[in-house]
Specification:
The complex is a heterodimer of chains A (about 130) and B (about 250). Chain A is about 75% helix and about 0% strand. Chain A is mainly α. Chain A folds into two domains: about 1-80, no CATH class; about 85-125. Chain A is extended and about 55 Å long. The two termini of chain A are about 15 Å apart. With about 250 residues, chain B is mainly α. Chain B is about 80% helix and about 0% strand. Chain B has 13 helices and no strands. Chain B is globular and about 65 Å long. The chains are: A mainly alpha (about 130), B mainly alpha (about 250). At the A-B interface, helix 1, helix 2, helix 3, helix 4 and helix 5 of A face helix 2, helix 3, helix 4, helix 5 and helix 7 of B. Chain B: It holds the Pfam family MadM. Chain B: GO terms for molecular function: sodium:malonate symporter activity. Chain B: InterPro entries: Mal/Na_symporter_MadM, Mal/Na_symporter_MadM_N.
């Protein structure tokens, strides 16, 4: 049943958010600390566990992949609900601080990734050769 | 007749949002195919189109939620809200290759720390250059340059004034939108073409909305790797902002 996959996803999501909130409260931060990341790792682990035991059939998996595919449309909706007006009207402080950090971070990313690239002998990534999911 | 269509659309917000986004994505794919011969990803057009519509919505209503402030399109706020966004991000984890993710483990941590400290220093330096001297204001604006959530959380914790908070949020929003727009253009320069580089990118660029939209517009397969790291970014920023970073600014301000 498709709903089993979606329910598994929902359970991992809720558990992750809960752990993130609890972790935040524990270290005295008024925010969710890594809840989504924890949920992602839970989902990876849960799918691995269930697949090994043959408890996750192709139909159930569709309940997860559908939402993964909905990701781009959701991001488009998110873009359409941003406060672009404020961003466009923001003063020079906001503009310079944002542009400065984006440019500097892009340079650092480029630097680190060039090192990785060299360390790996510059082989291109070929995901299709190692596809694990249906 | 027109009134009835309007009523049907406005009363079924979420379903209408699916239809509206479907139209935006279809038009974007056409633009990608015929205007750029597929060189610029359809998703990049879609995200840009979404932002343009958000600007238009803001101009029409003068409110803060972009196109969703128009009654006809209010469902976009639900579809593009934090709940659906995070739910779909978690779902993309089903495409993660665990071995690829493990390879970038330590680099991800390094990237996260750099991604918090570099924007913070830039933010503080710019605010200082524009005449802010109060350590609370400097820290809050610097934290805003990390993400638009870290800014207000930090500001609230150390007691910043509301105009400084607004400036801090604006800085974070501008940054997120810049990341969304410039990631596809800078992807070649940043060597953004494998899971490890996406994780480094996620840690350094920070803002989940910027990272996820930017990667989606570059190469959809990279999204889960970047998001996996970026999601810890806000937490780390909220942790460091009101504590270590505030104390550091206090120690060096004069």
């Amino acid at each position: 049943m498709v709903i089993f996959g979606t329910a598994l996803l929902a359970a991992c999501y809720l558990a992750g958010i809960f752990v993130g909130d609890a972790f935040g409260a524990l270290i005295g931060v008024k925010a969710n600390v890594g809840g989504v990341g924890i949920a992602m790792m839970l989902l990876i682990a849960a799918q691995h566990f269930l697949r090994e035991r043959g408890l996750l059939n192709a139909t159930s998996e569709k309940g997860v992949t559908f939402w993964a595919m909905m990701y781009i449309p959701v991001v488009v909706a998110m873009a359409a609900t941003q406060n672009v007006l404020v961003a466009a009207k923001a003063g020079p402080v906001a503009l310079l601080a944002a542009a400065g950090s984006v440019v500097l971070c892009a340079c650092v990313i480029s630097f680190i990734n060039r090192i990785i690239h060299r360390a790996h002998g510059g082989q291109p990534w070929n995901p299709d050769a190692t596809v694990e999911i249906g | 007749m027109l009134h009835m269509i309007e009523k049907a659309v406005a009363e079924n917000q979420l379903v209408s949002a699916f239809a509206v986004v479907g139209i935006i994505v279809w038009l974007s794919n056409q633009a990608s195919r015929y205007l750029t011969k597929g060189r610029v990803h359809g998703s990049a057009f879609a995200v840009l189109g979404g932002l343009a519509l958000a600007y238009w919505g803001g101009v029409l209503t003068g409110k803060t939620k972009g196109l969703a402030d128009l009654t006809m399109f209010s469902g976009l706020a639900l579809m593009g809200g934090a709940m659906m966004r995070d739910f779909c991000i978690v779902a993309t984890a089903s495409e993660v290759h665990v071995n690829e993710a493990k390879k970038a483990g330590i680099l991800g941590f390094v990237a996260l720390f750099l991604g918090t400290i570099i924007p913070f220093i830039v933010g503080v330096a710019v605010a200082r250059a524009f005449g802010y001297t109060d350590p609370v204001a400097l820290t809050t604006i610097g934290a805003g340059a990390v993400t638009y959530i870290v800014g207000p959380v930090t500001g609230a914790a150390i007691g910043a004034s509301s105009d400084v908070m607004a400036l801090s949020i604006a800085t974070g929003v501008v940054k997120a939108i810049m990341v969304m727009i410039f990631t596809p253009a800078l992807a070649g320069f940043m060597r953004l073409n494998n899971p490890q580089s996406a994780m480094v990118f996620g840690g350094l660029a920070g803002t989940v909305s910027g990272v996820s939209a930017g990667l989606a517009a570059t190469d959809r397969r990279l999204v889960p790797y970047g998001a996996l790291v970026a999601t810890f970014h806000t937490g780390l920023g909220c942790l460091m902002g009101p504590s270590v970073l505030y104390l550091a600014v206090k120690a060096i301000s004069w």
